[in-house]
Model the fold of this input.
Amino acid sequence: MAKLREYEDRLKQSSQNSSKSPSSDTPEANSVLFDMVREINRLKGSDVDAANALGVVLENGANGTTWRKK
Done:
């Protein structure tokens, strides 16, 4: 689950680097989100539990941040 921690850290860092509230509206955050989707798709065939865990992080964002627009 080192990858999971890496993605969480990258999401936190991208939100800290933004002058806006934490969101997916920064290029850094978008890059992390696309990387996460790519990793989920790769893991689906070999480690479904890891893919699901990463999917939860993707859905909820780092620190429970919601990435959906309100």
User: Anything to note?
Assistant: Residues 27-43 form the longest helix (17 residues). The CA atoms of residues 8 and 46 lie 21 Å apart. The mean pLDDT is 76.
